[in-house]
Protein 1
Amino acid sequence: MSTYLITGVSRGLGFEFLRQLSEDPANTVVGLVRDKATTEKKASVELHDRDNIHLLQGDITDYAFLKKAVDATAAITGGALDYVIANAAFISTWSAFDPIGVLGNQPEKLEQDLLGSLNANVIGNIHLFNLTIPLVLRGHAKKIIAISSGMADIDVITKFDITESAPYSISKAALNAAVAKFSAQYAKDGVLFLSISPGLVDTGNFKDATIEQQQALFALMGKFKKFAPHFTGPTTPDLAIRDVLSVIKKASVDADKGAFISQHGDKNWL
Ligand SMILES: NC(=O)c1ccc[n+]([C@@H]2O[C@H](COP(=O)([O-])OP(=O)(O)OC[C@H]3O[C@@H](n4cnc5c(N)ncnc54)[C@H](OP(=O)(O)O)[C@@H]3O)[C@@H](O)[C@H]2O)c1
């Protein structure tokens, strides 16, 4: 039996974490969402009101809200947590395809986009780690996982000219650094901090893409194929989360502390 806190479970990969982890009735799975009523309805229809799922309202950019949610989690799990999965993220479509130099022609919008990315993906998660660490120290598994992105691999960005999603990539690189810092502090207490990229997964983020965005997405896929010739397109949430959970299960403080790895457990992002 394990206890989990997952952020951003309303849809996409977060909902898939919720679905797969709650399949085992011995698990207690707490999910943080911004719109509790809507997610409750979705979970009721798709997951048939599993009674090991607990949904809490919270926005990771609001510290007071987050603290309340972590306190409520402690009340549900008896004051301890085995796993934290920091999945929620601000994923900007505005800055998804233009290079940062082009975005620089709209400095105010660029600043807004960068701040939005950093607030949710870095600062929100740092607060989440600090608020949950006392619970995790009392848990058995002691694993805090940040869902990152291969888009933050600096060697890949420079080698394959990945100009896309600069603010998002910058925020995920900063998140990886935060995970390494937390690891440096808490590995001695047996806590594994780890950044994992789930690969490229179709979660519907570009279902309303314009023709230009579709063309840009196609061009990005071409760049991906250069560094991963086996790549044929995005995978499904089901497969991606199965892989990520298997990496989480196998990972240990000794072998993986503070690392940034993929759903395959290495640096193969696709
Ligand atoms: N899909 C991919 O190909 C891919 C690739 C690499 C990495 N990732 C990472 O995987 C994770 C999940 O991605 P996804 O594709 O499932 O994204 P998604 O479908 O856009 O879902 C994002 C989730 O984050 C929540 N969220 C956003 N801002 C929040 C905030 N301030 N407070 C609380 N929750 C917030 C959203 O809630 P609302 O419903 O309330 O907006 C939603 O539940 C992200 O960390 C992403 O960076 C995804």
Protein 2
Amino acid sequence: MMLETVAAVPGMVAGAVLHLRSLRRFEQSGGWIRALLEEAENERMHLMTFMEVSQPRWYERALVVAVQGVFFHAYLATYLASPKVAHRMVGYLEEEAVHSYTEFLRDLEAGKIDDVPAPAIAIDYWRLPAGATLKDVVRVVRADEAHHRDVNHYASDIHCQGHALREVAAPIGYH
Ligand SMILES: [Fe+2]
Ligand SMILES: [Fe+2]
């Protein structure tokens, strides 16, 4: 849950940077603004979902405030300096998230963590069946993280080849 508060930052930062660039240069973004903002929204939904399962303590809230202040600015600086490096970094972080959720799933399957009913917000957002449980939620969240990993590595690869993001359309078709 704590990591989701960090994970929802890069997409919003990168989306905002590309949004402003699009306005400044009078050019389209190739769908990347929408794709990145959607990533941020998706990560925020991960947080909203896991909040239903466990509540943050006061010192965890304090930590999030401190980490967000630092991470937002650090990621913005990194993205302005090198989108290629920034997306690569996120790609690796997302891979770590896939590992973490795989372990979470293993603990759920082994009965170390109670497989409680899925929160209503999760059933709504991922259109899960009515009887869905936490296990189902973790599976769809892990699939999201794998998608973020691929999208961010792809964004970084494009920069490796010397193309601006806008020249290669985002994996989902927006403008
Ligand atoms: Fe996430
Ligand atoms: Fe993620």
Protein 3
Amino acid sequence: MARKLAVFNMKGGVAKSTTVYNLAVGLVKFKKQRVLIVDIDPQGNASAALGIPIWKIDFQLKDVLQHKTPLEQVLVSTDSGVDVLPSNLFLAEEEIPISGRPGRELLLRKAIAPILDKYDFVLIDCPPNIGVFSINALMASDAVLIPVDMSYLGLLGVQGIERALTLVREQLEHPIEIAGVLATRYDRRNNLSKEVFDALTNHFGDKMFKSVIPESVRIREAPSHGQSIFDYDKDSVGALAYSQLVDEVYKCQ
Ligand SMILES: Nc1ncnc2c1ncn2[C@@H]1O[C@H](COP(=O)(O)OP(=O)(O)OP(=O)(O)O)[C@@H](O)[C@H]1O
Ligand SMILES: [Mg+2]
């Protein structure tokens, strides 16, 4: 049975999509895992990183959530070896209709249930908010991977994340765990990164991943070349950090 991880933080730009993409490619490349990315963010960034022409797709995740298209028709296998259920901005137009449906929180869980035995990992890329799509991602997951960028606002956002997880556990009765908190965009040249990292470690203790993702131009450049950090610059500090994360996620399966 697949391990299902939502990559979630309501704050934008903390490297959710970058982490989903590189972690997925790394799990395939280094651990020979079968990996599915579920892109439940209307920005479609994880889909685009995988080379999906998001403005030309005939079918997408929303069609599965609305029972309009069979899942097999929406699922795309990519050259990286990662499969994806893609999305684009049309997903956003469905937010209100989907929010009004009975059982709205469980649409994704039910949609992917039939294919879980085909995968070792399902990584769900969440949008930067706590709307119906993020709730669906959390309800479909065993655990949540929380990327936090090394900024003051990043630290401040932690309270909101914990509140959202409490809501899912208590109101929706889903015992979601924290797989780990990932420090991202760590810049050794400024003190703030260290201060935020120390505060996070104090708070989360052994829930912190040991891997720390550095602020890196190579990580930022890689998607524009259609490549993961491992293919774009395999000896870079960013590739090393993401390969350590791959090891950690693989081990705590
Ligand atoms: N370690 C890093 N070093 C430098 N740039 C990074 C790093 N990680 C991500 N970025 C860049 O920061 C931007 C935001 O990253 P990303 O899209 O992964 O964040 P996100 O949390 O998914 O954002 P959103 O909340 O909008 O979905 C992108 O331009 C990405 O290339
Ligand atoms: Mg994103």
Protein 4
Amino acid sequence: MTEHPEVTPTPRPGSRLAEQTHAAADDQVDVMAISPVREEGMLEESTADSPFGPDIVAKAKDLIGRYPQSRSALLPMLHLVQSVQGFVSQEGITFCAEQLDLSEAEVSAVVTFYTMYKRKPCGEHLVSVCTNTLCAALGGDAIYRRLAEHLGEDGRPLGHEEVAGTPGERGSVMLEHAECLAACDLAPVLQVNYEYFDKQTEESAVELVDALRRGEKPQPSRGAPLADFKSVELQLAGFFPEEEDAYRADVDGPSRAVETVRGAQLAADRGWTAPSMPDDAPLPEVEAK
Ligand code: FES
């Protein structure tokens, strides 16, 4: 297990955004006056050292162009940031705030709300073990405990969102416990970079993470082939290969399990259908804004 590198907050330019932060916090407290972002030298250094080069800025502009209001691009843009750094750093928050004309406080509020945005560098792979009720009862808790012990070092189990190996390097694995992954019929499940591995046991889960640690990419139970965390983040941001074959190879795969469609199959076999919606069903009033 490797210590996570210290994340050094970087200053952010933009007096207008500074004013927004100030106003949002409290007119009595000059937030920016007590912030190191006023140091001009630091601002120049931040720009020069930014990990978000022209290609990423172009992608950010592309995302913004997809929405009527720029702030609506925040969620995909945070995935874009993760595709570059493997997590949302303070620099990433600053980048999003600047691109979207938001305050850093607004961006931070979103980042810290959603568990898919990581504040610490992720491994090449993110292993999410469902420990919600059904999976837990069927072995999910035991799987998580076993993986934590297996991936830990010196008798200390790996903690939630800690990484075995060096974050970002080949074979590194971040472990997390997850809430219901919407595959209860295939419990206990885990995901690697959001691809499903169904009906796991402690042994199959250990075999899986061992393969990941060796740099292999086992085939998920269904869905797309396994990719690394950063590549998946780029897809989640909404960027795919332009060429059709390459696109299909990235995203296609068997997407349904027999268990999931069992009810629909039984209904079809027995000729059961749901009553159709009447054409004249009244629709609820829509309030004019
Ligand atoms: S409880 Fe694990 S997928 Fe629903």
